[in-house]
User: Which sequence fits this backbone?
């Protein structure tokens, strides 16, 4: 690893992962607002439509609320690890090793990321600053750093060479 590559590499970090009460509240509030809108529509606007449309609308609300609850309840609990070259997630005895990580949503104090293991389904992770305030800056640096020095080393010759025309 070159000196420049090691200088730009984010330090190793361990960050606790768990189910977020804040996210649960947001999802529950979204579900409640959806139900209130549906009930208002059924009370004052649905009379022009057949009854089966109201049933379908109610089933769609139930399905979306159930999907939101399932998403939240299936969020992993464990420790997210960055070793300078890749990401892994430790969940008790289970582990996802060296998976690429992508940021899906960044709210500054909360980040939704997705780990993509070589085999198996994607793993969605909700990270919050309050879980480990002292590690938050290191985690953010690691999340936005290049995964592995090979990428930095591979980029160096391309930037230092002149282009032939």
Assistant:
């Amino acid at each position: 690893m070159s000196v420049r590559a090691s200088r730009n590499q984010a330090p190793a970090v361990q960050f606790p992962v768990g189910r977020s009460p804040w996210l649960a509240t947001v999802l529950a509030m979204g579900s409640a607002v959806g139900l209130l809108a549906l009930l208002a529509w059924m009370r004052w606007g649905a009379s022009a439509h057949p009854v089966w449309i109201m049933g379908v609308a109610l089933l769609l609300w139930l399905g979306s609320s159930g999907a939101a609850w399932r998403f939240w309840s299936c969020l992993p609990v464990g420790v997210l690890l960055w070793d300078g070259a890749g990401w892994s997630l430790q969940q008790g005895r289970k582990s996802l090793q060296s998976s690429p990580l992508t940021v899906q949503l960044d709210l500054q104090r909360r980040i939704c990321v997705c780990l993509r293991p070589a085999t198996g389904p994607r793993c969605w992770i909700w990270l919050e600053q309050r879980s480990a305030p002292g590690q938050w800056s290191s985690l953010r640096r690691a999340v936005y750093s290049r995964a592995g020095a090979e990428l930095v080393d591979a980029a160096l010759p391309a930037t230092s060479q002149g282009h032939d025309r």
Remarks:
- The helical segments are 3-8, 21-44, 51-73, 136-143, 149-160.
- Strands lie at 13-17, 78-82, 87-91, 94-99, 101-106, 110-115, 123-128.
- The mean pLDDT is 84.
- Residues 18 and 67 are 18 Å apart (CA to CA).
